[in-house]
Write a structure and sequence with these properties.
Elements (H helix, E strand, L loop, with lengths): L12 H18 L6 E4 L6 E3 L3 H6 L6 H5 L9 H9 L8 E3 L1 H8 L5 E5 L3 H7 L9 E4 L3 H8 L7 E5 L8 H15 L4 E8 L2 H13 L5 E7 L11 E7 L5 H15 L8 E8 L6
Parallel strand pairs: 1-4, 1-6, 4-5, 6-7
Antiparallel strand pairs: 2-3, 7-9, 8-9, 8-10
The structure holds S-adenosylmethionine.
The site of S-adenosylmethionine has 21 residues, from helix 7.
């Protein structure tokens, strides 16, 4: 089933949290002068025009990136992410929104590699025009959850994997945890970023429980919800489960989420957020 198109949602509050977490993680990996791989199991088309019919349908970006774009004073934790959004909009007007592959393609060095999976034929085609496509960018039109295993362990022994499904199928919630458990067995030192929507609090709690039961250590949960939980309002928030997070990430998110709650909230006082360690930290030595 491929009815989901990210173009309808580009730049919404969930993209902000996901891409902020991604940019901070990439920034951390780039501090070391050693190559790494970026793996995106559900890449999307890579770049979005906010004037498109799809993006204009519900204008989700208006309660996401647009609220940050209009701020005169931005906290430093947001700088890398917002600089990328500015780079995607060279005319100085918010007209485009960069997807996760575009963000990674901009940040990674010549020695790093991108491995991208996208099933939808139109999004796969668009992804193929990603700037800088060549030796370091590899794109496959196959199932990203299966494809991930074929890449692990990555030869440089350093990798960030983003798992960002559309959760069209209820089974996606358990499939991602199974995939992560298997991936972690093959390669336990990589950083894995698993995005999830808050559509039903029970589902999120079940995922959290399943991840804890998997025995994978060092998982941090980061969540931001502009709206109160509700089972009949669609997506009221979103979050990331981060396995082997950069050591500064939880602190950076704890610092920035209160600011985001103030500046990216749709109804006063409803925004809520969490940053918590859900499985024991490894001894970082
Ligand atoms: C939420 S979007 C990805 C957004 C992107 N990661 C970003 O942050 O810019 C999910 C994408 O996964 C694609 N997709 C769905 N099932 C897939 C699968 N099994 N393998 C690879 N791609 C899949 C969809 O076509 C859609 O473009």
């Amino acid at each position: 089933m491929l009815s989901y198109r990210h173009a309808f949602h580009a730049g919404n509050h969930a993209d902000v949290i996901k891409h902020l977490t991604l940019a901070l993680t990439l920034e951390y990996y780039l501090r070391k002068d050693k190559p790494f791989w970026y793996i995106d199991t559900h890449a999307g088309s890579g770049f979005y025009r906010l004037g498109s019919t799809e993006a204009q349908k519900n204008r989700e970006f208006a309660t996401g990136i647009q609220q940050l774009w209009e701020q005169a004073c931005i906290p430093e934790q947001l700088a890398a992410y917002l600089n990328l959004v500015r780079l995607a909009n060279p005319a100085g007007k918010l007209e485009h929104y960069p997807g996760s592959p575009w963000i990674a393609a901009q940040m990674l060095r010549k020695t790093d590699q991108l491995h991208l999976f996208e099933l939808h034929p139109a999004d796969f085609q668009a992804l193929n025009s990603l700037p800088g496509k060549g030796k370091r960018i590899h794109i496959q039109q196959t199932d990203g959850l299966k494809g991930l295993h074929s890449l692990l362990p990555p030869p440089p022994r350093r990798a960030i994997t983003l798992i960002d499904p559309s959760y069209e199928l209820k089974t996606d919630y358990s499939a991602v945890v199974e995939t992560l458990t298997k991936a972690h067995k093959r390669f336990d030192s990589g950083t894995y970023l698993l995005w999830y929507p808050v559509v039903s609090r029970q589902r999120v709690q079940q995922m959290l429980h399943d991840l804890q039961a998997s025995g994978i250590p060092d998982i941090v949960q980061i969540e931001f919800c502009p709206l109160q939980d509700s089972n009949n309002m669609g997506m009221t928030g979103s979050g990331m489960f981060v396995i082997n997070p950069p050591w500064l990430l939880a602190q950076q998110m704890r610092e920035i989420l209160p600011w985001l709650a103030e500046h990216m909230s749709t109804s006063t006082g409803a925004a809520h957020y969490t940053v918590q360690q859900i499985s024991p930290e490894k001894n970082r030595g």
